[in-house]
Specification:
Radius of gyration: 21 Å
Helix content: over 70%
Mean pLDDT: 82
Distance between the termini: 19 Å
CATH topology: Growth Hormone, Chain: A
Oligomer: single chain
Length: 415
Amino acid sequence: MSEEQVADEGILCDASTERCVVQTFGTASFLNDMGSDIVFSIWPVFITLLVGETLAPLILGLVDGIGDFVVNVSKGFSGFISDKVQKRKPFIWSGYMAGASSRIIYGLASTWQWLIPAKILDRAGKLRGAPRDALVADVSSRETRGRNFGILRTLDHTGATLGVLITIAFVTFVMPWLFTVYGWLPLPSLQFLFITASIPTFIGAILIIFRITDYRKDTKKPVFTLHSINRSLAIFITLSVIFALASFSYSLVTLYAGAFLVLPTINPFLGVPVAYLVFTLTAALASAPLGKLGDRIGRRATILIGFIFFGSMCAIFLFTPNFWTVLFALVFYGISIGATVPMQSSLVSELAPLEVRASILGVFQMFIGLATLPASFIAGYLWVFFGPNFTFGLALILSFIAALLLPLVHEPKSD
């Protein structure tokens, strides 16, 4: 598609369609993740203040599990409908709007029960996921697809890193000032922070509305059936579900790690956001290079790297947790995210027939969603009643099983 054609279609860029789409989605993702991670970097502390230390892991597992379930199921439906109606854009910008609106509800929550509908709205906003990934895959070639998904993940995590830094600055400087001047306690201070965190995502949604038009490769009329899922794709979905059962909510990871990083003489609330910052910053730095690595050595090998680093994190938490080893474990966690998330999207999009690519990406995310609800709830339950070692031990075993199945997937050599 020429630059003139791009301009005619209303995409306000001077570059190719591929570059334009990646830049625009990358900017929107940066803004969204900045707002999102202002909230979620301090989320375990917020839940603890709301329900108390004893029940916090269980409520975290329940609320985050419901949220992750809704995320991936909504992706499934949006991917199928996106292929059916031949549209991508409406699902993308409306998803950002839903995420921004949910943060206002978080800020108004008076009990933890409020968090469930807000979390559902927040994560339903992820309905943008499969259509966005499909649009990026559509405008990319095999030689650039891993790089493009890696760039998006890098901007996701860079925005997230900035969001965490904003939260750390808020907790360190603004929260004490709000208490001194207005008498605000930590809980209402965080609620105020959550409401302001909606603003960047609203801006990202507006950017999508005015900058992107739908683009789709010419294909035959899409008809999704189970025959669209070939043997390698079925195996990959299966092992990804197993790994999803291991990959419980990151809130539990930061809650555990934060206990080893807490600096009570400075600020008792800093441990969790510092833990979140370490793995998010690592993921931001690792995603683009790992995306390029996936273009060179293959998606499957890069995903295996992610599985290995995730298992290493669990092993450290199980056997040698202290200040320094926990820092290394969080770095490993960030690398595992940078290696697995973009490569999973790339591999699924390449294993899927072109005409039902969004549907297949959606089905993949739906199966992941069916696993994430029990994963986080079981992790929280084991933590509360048996201790965190049972949580991380189960995750280590499941990630090892997923890694053993990975060689059975035959990676395509071309689109």
